[in-house]
Amino acid sequence: MRILVISDTHIPLTAETLPPLIEKEAKKSDCCLHAGDLISKEVLQKLSSLTKTYAVYGNMDDPELKRELPQKLIIPCEEVTIGLTHGRGSPANLIQIIQKEFAKEKKQIDIFVFGHTHSPIDREINGKIYFNPGSPTDTFFTPYRSYGILEIEGKSIKRRIIRIE
């Protein structure tokens, strides 16, 4: 299973639309995970028209999205369980905040997907993966735009952060 992972699109604040590359990747993927800060519902509608899309709300999302989307999701995928959230608070403590947010479900989750910092992260801590794709539209907190791809087969998780040039 091939999964496009994005976060912090901030449309229409940092870009007018999704980059064409993201639309192309969505069409090639079995599904898309959006880790919040879509800002407008149109982003969710566009992604959903291209592939099955799972999304959570972020701190900057408009009230309509916050009413529609959950703060976190647990998504089974093959033999892997994904925890999806946006994140909040200081980037320095973000992994600890995510661990607390999923405290009850932590044992069953194999990979935590999140956003908030706009900076990509791909780390393994105590057998758990923490994956932040960065932002495909914004370079405010990082020198480049990026997104992620997860390839899941059974219990195997291959992951890549891809820079957008």
Structural description of this entry:
This protein has four helices and ten strands. With 165 residues, the chain is of the alpha/beta class. The protein has a single domain (2-164), classed as 4-Layer Sandwich (Purple Acid Phosphatase, chain A, domain 2), CATH 3.60.21. The strands form two sheets. Strands 3-2-1-9-10 form a five-stranded mixed beta sheet, with helices on one face. Strands 4-5-6-8-7 form a five-stranded mixed beta sheet, with helices on one face. The model has no long low-confidence stretch (mean pLDDT 96).
**Which residue ranges are poorly predicted, with pLDDT under 50 across at least 5 consecutive positions?**
none
Distance between the termini: 26 Å
Roughly what is the average pLDDT, rounded to an integer?
A: 96
Order of adjacent strands in the largest pleated sheet: 3-2-1-9-10
CATH architecture: 4-Layer Sandwich
Tally of discrete structural domains: 1
Q: So how many helices?
A: 4
Largest sheet: number of strands, sense, barrel closure: 5 strands, mixed
- Under CATH, the topology can be stated as Purple Acid Phosphatase, chain A, domain 2
Radius of gyration: 14 Å
The count of strands amounts to 10
The named CATH superfamily:
Metallo-dependent phosphatases
Which class best fits the helix and strand makeup?
alpha/beta
What is the element string, with H for helices and E for strands? Answer: EHEHEHEEHEEEEE
Topology (SSEs and partners):
Blueprint: E1 2-6, H1 20-28, E2 31-34, H2 41-50, E3 52-55, H3 63-68, E4 72-77, E5 80-85, H4 94-101, E6 111-113, E7 121-125, E8 128-132, E9 145-153, E10 156-164
Parallel strand pairs: 1-2, 2-3, 5-6, 6-8
Antiparallel strand pairs: 1-9, 4-5, 7-8, 9-10
